[in-house]
């Protein structure tokens, strides 16, 4: 009688265990914009829009804002550019420079111009008149010191001389050349600073 084979049939293969699929959210974590990054994007977009508002302002109003010289010049350049693509690139550059600007002070002043009271408008007109008087009449400096005794007389004289020299240089520029207004703006800022300091006392 033949002996039965002692070999047993092979055991069925154990099923392979696969790890569960990775969570799609986990896979995308490397590219996920967290709240802080989103907030930064919104802030950058707001600064870009603010810069574009500045490009629409007149030069006289720009001179009254606390703008760095590079930003001020970039805004004037954007106003000159007519080609669509060139203007778009320049506006982006303005938006980039806005990151270092005093956006709150600029926005506050724009709000005054757009929605402010007559008192605020009269206040800025008064400062502008002081600048005009100081540039046109030497005797105006004495009146200004009487109105604002804490003023630095030597500093004011230096600002006035520089602004007058700048104005004379601008008057001699050939047609098409952009006038400089650095010292013109600096004088206004000093007048504004003296007025605000007097109001705070």
UniProtKB/TrEMBL annotation:
The keyword RNA-binding applies. The keyword Disulfide bond does not apply. HAMAP family: DarP. It holds the Pfam family DarP. Transmembrane segments: none annotated. NCBIfam families: PRK05255.1-1 (NF003593). Its main location: cytoplasm. GO terms for molecular function: ribosome binding; rRNA binding. Residues 1-27 have a biased composition (Low complexity). Keywords: Cytoplasm, Ribosome biogenesis, RNA-binding, rRNA-binding. It comes from the Bacteria. This is Dual-action ribosomal maturation protein DarP. The gene is darP. GO terms for biological process: assembly of large subunit precursor of preribosome. GO terms for cellular component: cytosol. It is found in: Cytoplasm. SUPFAM superfamilies: PSPTO4464-like. Belongs to the DarP family. Member of a network of 50S ribosomal subunit biogenesis factors which assembles along the 30S-50S interface, preventing incorrect 23S rRNA structures from forming. Promotes peptidyl transferase center (PTC) maturation. Residues 1-43 are annotated as: Disordered. Gene3D superfamilies: PSPTO4464-like domains.
């Amino acid at each position: 009688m033949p002996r039965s084979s002692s070999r047993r049939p092979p055991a069925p293969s154990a099923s392979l265990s696969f790890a569960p699929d990775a969570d799609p959210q986990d896979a995308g974590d490397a590219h996920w914009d967290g709240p802080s990054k989103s907030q930064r994007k919104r802030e950058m977009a707001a600064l870009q829009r603010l810069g574009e508002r500045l490009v629409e302002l007149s030069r006289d109003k720009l001179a009254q804002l606390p703008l760095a010289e590079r930003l001020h010049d970039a805004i004037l350049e954007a106003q000159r550019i007519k080609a669509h693509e060139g203007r778009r690139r320049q506006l982006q550059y303005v938006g980039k420079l806005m990151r270092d600007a005093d956006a709150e002070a600029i926005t506050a002043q724009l709000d005054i111009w757009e929605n402010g009271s007559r008192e605020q408008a009269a206040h800025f007109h008064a400062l502008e008149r002081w600048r005009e008087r100081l540039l046109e009449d030497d005797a105006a400096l004495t009146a200004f010191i009487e109105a604002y005794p804490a003023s630095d007389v030597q500093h004011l004289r230096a600002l006035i001389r520089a602004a007058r020299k700048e104005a004379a240089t601008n008057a001699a520029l050939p047609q098409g050349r952009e006038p400089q207004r650095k010292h013109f703006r600096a004088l206004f800022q000093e007048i504004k600073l003296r007025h605000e300091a007097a109001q705070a006392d």
